[in-house]
Design goal:
Largest sheet: 7 strands, parallel
Distance between the termini: 28 Å
CATH architecture: 3-Layer(aba) Sandwich
Radius of gyration: 18 Å
Number of helices: 9
Number of domains: 1
Strand content: 5-15%
CATH superfamily: NAD(P)-binding Rossmann-like Domain
Strand order of the largest sheet: 3-2-1-4-5-6-7
Number of strands: 7
Helix content: 40-55%
Structural class: alpha/beta
Order of helices and strands: EHEHEHEHEHHEHHHE
Bound molecules: nicotinamide-adenine-dinucleotide
Shape: globular
CATH topology: Rossmann fold
Length: 269
C-alpha cells in the first residue's frame, strides 16, 4: 500500500527506544525524513542507524519533554533544517517504577513526575509545533496513550490517569486543529515488550516475597494470554503500522479518535 508519505517530515518524540523507534522506522520505510527526539543520549546513534538502514534523511535530537523552551527550539530547528514538520508523534512515556496496587502503595509525591512526562510533555509538544502546523495548514499529530487510560490500571494509577488525560487533550487538540486541516489521533497499545513494559513487571517483582516472584516472560506472558482475546503480545511494529496509516491521506477523515492496538483487550461499541 502506498501511504504517500514520501517527502514528508516526521518528528518522533520519545523516538530512541521501543514503540517510538519502531514508528520512526516505519515512517522512514515510507520515504519520510525522520527526526528522533528523546532525552536519551542514544538518540543520535539510533537516528544514524536508521539513516543507514533505510537510506532516508534522519536526525537525532536530545531533549527533555518537560522543558518547554527546549521543545520550542526542537520545533523551530526541525522546520528551519528540514523545511517542514508534517507528522508529530508523541511516544515519550514513563511509569512510576513502583507497584501501585493498591494505590496507597504509592505516595502522592510519586504523581507529579508521571503526569509531567506522560501528559504535560505531550502538551508542550503540541504547543511547540502548533505555530508550524497551523501556518502549513496540514499535518497530523499522534499521541501514544495506553489501554491503561480506559480501564483504571491497577498497577500504576498515576500512569493510568495521565494516559486518560492525554486522550482528553487529544480530543481538545483535534477540535482546535481541525480548521487548519491538522488531524489529531491517539493509539492505545496493549502490551508490548519494551523497557517500559518490563518496568511494570520489575515493580511487581520487587514488591513480592522471594518465593512468589516469577520471571517477566512467565508473569507478563500469562497476563497477556488472560486479558487479550487474541492471546498474544503486541509488537512495536503493530503500533507503527497504525501510526503511519493514521498519518497518511488514507486516514484523511479520521481525527479525534482513539485506536486500540491491543489484541482486543478493550472493546467499545
Ligand atoms: N510497552 C507497552 O506495553 C506500552 C503499552 C501502552 C502504552 N505504551 C506507551 O508507548 C509509549 C512508548 O513506550 P515504550 O513502551 O516504547 O517504552 P520505552 O521505554 O522503550 O520508550 C520510551 C521513550 O521515552 C523516552 N522518554 C522518557 N521520558 C522522557 C523525557 N522526559 N523526555 C524525552 N524523552 C523521554 C525514553 O528515553 C524512551 O526512549 C509510551 O508513551 C508508553 O506509555 C507502552
Amino acid at each position: 500500500m502506498n501511504l504517500q508519505l514520501t517527502d514528508s517530515v516526521a518528528v518522533i518524540v520519545g523516538g530512541a527506544s521501543g514503540i517510538g523507534l519502531a514508528i520512526g522506522k516505519a515512517f522512514a520505510d515510507e520515504g519520510a525524513a525522520v527526526v528522533l527526539a528523546d532525552r536519551s543520549a542514544a538518540v543520535a546513534e539510533r537516528a544514524g542507524e536508521l539513516a543507514q538502514s533505510t537510506r532516508t534523511r534522519t536526525a537525532g535530537r536530545m531533549v527533555d519533554v518537560v522543558d518547554y523552551e527546549g521543545m520550542r527550539r526542537l520545533a523551530d530547528s526541525v522546520v528551519s533544517e528540514f523545511g517542514r514538520a508534517d507528522h508529530i508523534v508523541y511516544a515519550a512515556g514513563m511509569g512510576s517504577g513502583k507497584f501501585g496496587f493498591p494505590f496507597w502503595n504509592l505516595s502522592p509525591s510519586d504523581w507529579p513526575r508521571i503526569l509531567e512526562v506522560n501528559l504535560v510533555g505531550a502538551v508542550n509538544t503540541a504547543h511547540a509545533f502548533a505555530p508550524h502546523l497551523t501556518a502549513a495548514r496540514r499535518g497530523t499529530v499522534l499521541m501514544i496513550s495506553s489501554v491503561a487510560a480506559q480501564i483504571g490500571s491497577q498497577t500504576d494509577p498515576p500512569y493510568s490517569a495521565a494516559k486518560a488525560a492525554l486522550l482528553n487533550f487529544t480530543h481538545c487538540a483535534a477540535k482546535d486543529f481541525a480548521a487548519y486541516d491538522v488531524r489529531v489521533n491517539a493509539i492505545c497499545p496493549g502490551m508490548v515488550q519494551t523497557p517500559l513494559n518490563r518496568g511494570v513487571w520489575q515493580a511487581w517483582h520487587d514488591s513480592q516475597p522471594p518465593d512468589t516472584r516469577r520471571s517477566y516472560e512467565d508473569w507478563a506472558g500469562e497476563k497477556v494470554r488472560k486479558i487479550a482475546p487474541l492471546g498474544r503480545w503486541q509488537t512495536p511494529e503493530d503500533i507503527a503500522a497504525m501510526a503511519v496509516f493514521l498519518a497518511s491521506p488514507r486516514a484523511n477523515n479520521i481525527t479525534g479518535q482513539t485506536l486500540n492496538v491491543d489484541g482486543g483487550q478493550v472493546m467499545h461499541c
